[in-house]
Protein: Alpha/beta hydrolase
Organism: Rubrivivax albus
Amino acid sequence: MPDTTLQTGIFDLPGLRLHAAVQGEGPLVIFCHGFPEGWRSWRHQLAALAAAGYRAVAPDMRGYGGTVSTKHPEGALGPEQSTMLHQAGDLVALVKALGETQAVLVGHDWGAPAVWYAALMRPDVFRAVAGLAVPFVPPSPVDLLMAYERQGVHTFYMQYFQAPGVAEAELDADPEATLRRVWWSMSGDGPDRVVAGVLPPGAGFLDVTEEPDPARLPAWWDTDDLRATAEDFRRRGFAGGLNWYRAIRRNAELMAPWYGAVIRQPSLFIVGERDDLLAFPGVRERLKDLKRALPGLRGQHVLPGAGHWVQRERAADVNALLVAFLRSLDGPSAAR
């Protein structure tokens, strides 16, 4: 019988000591989390894929949790070390550190651009890719910040995140309350309004969130996971994750060689019906023609009633879709 015990460990990558959870044996699948989360956001998927015969690995991405820079061990990596090129490099190095030559990538929120871009740049290493919440958009010189500026918008939440120290002061004040409010308010069970959108003038990000009612928490809510993740942010702060947002303009410049390029490997996209990101400019239009950017698209799924945290809110559905996708790559005998 294969070992399906979840284990955590440290992997030495160039310039990075990467902390990751590993579960199962078989073909390698790497899960990349977004903001503000950590490896635990994939707990249900790690267990499901391990049971299905895969080796599932979920790192704390650079700037998060137990992953630390060997060059800047005491502080957060800045925007200049938080680009999509850095994320792709980490993933390539992680595959090698795990003793493999190829992997399938799965990413959610900021982890989705990380896996899309890694698959775009290294199709020889990443044989297939799945994104949750954030669809693939071919690199372009017009980034999201620029797009909003051209519309005369200056209080989009990503713009609020740009000034160093401002969002940190708000989010770091009480990490558990920050996660509680953001996770609840951006879920399908939360308030019927957009949180990750344009903020009222003078408002902070948490001003548009609300506290969940402890007596009415949904079945997917895991208080132990929330507390453990909050402890990671209490120790590290939110700056590491916020610096991914501050690298947006730099990403657009660095990705110039791939402007307009598409991903040809087999791909999958999953989003919650009530995800705030569906309100981003042009997203719904892009979803209607997603196969143009993803010629290898094998499935595009909108899960009814789910919000942004789709892999937790609809864990069983996401697990089934991922296992079916992985089986389609090599057939039922590929995993044990």
Remarks:
- The chain has 14 helices and nine strands.
- Residues 6-329 form a domain with the Rossmann fold fold (CATH 3.40.50.1820).
- The two ends are 9 Å apart (CA to CA).
- The beta strands are 7-13, 16-23, 28-32, 55-59, 68-69, 103-108, 126-132, 267-272, 297-303.
